Amino acid sequence: ISFDRLNGIIECESGVLLADVLEVIVPQGYFLFVTPGTKFITIVGAIASDVHGKNHHAEGCFSANVIEFSLMTEKGEILTCSKTENADRFWATIGGMGLTGIILSAKFKLKNIESSYIRQERIKAENLDEIFKLFDESEPWTYSVAWIDCLQKDKNLGRSIMMRGEHAFRHEL
Description:
Structural class: alpha+beta
Oligomer: single chain
Number of helices: 5
Shape: globular
Radius of gyration: 19 Å
Strand content: 25-35%
Order of helices and strands: EEHEHHEEHEEHEE
């Protein structure tokens, strides 16, 4: 519907896929604050599920960056919902799995990026103690996730691979 490139704010219809939003915003130097494990979900799905991403510790859930949305209620009334306008309906709809009505459109903030590349590290952890320590040490990183082997026993319980990353700056490419 609109893209404010100066302030990094986009408004789109609720059925637009995150993948489609990324095609528009990444070449303009923006990225979504929060993306789940797939970019093939709709904006309304991101709001209705209040999705999180690999950066939950740094950026929170999708709702942290939603400015407002247009909601059609069960009576056919169309409301603008934000953290200040119809706030009770806003918070009931965020993560509400569609129980409050139909989201028609949404406006949300974007984050500036210098590059579409992610600088990434992979680190092995021998057990749960090591992976928890790595997560603590990785707090400054924007993105972090671990694949944990739950079939190991004894001293190898929780053997893991951590992947952590952050957006690369142009001078690093």
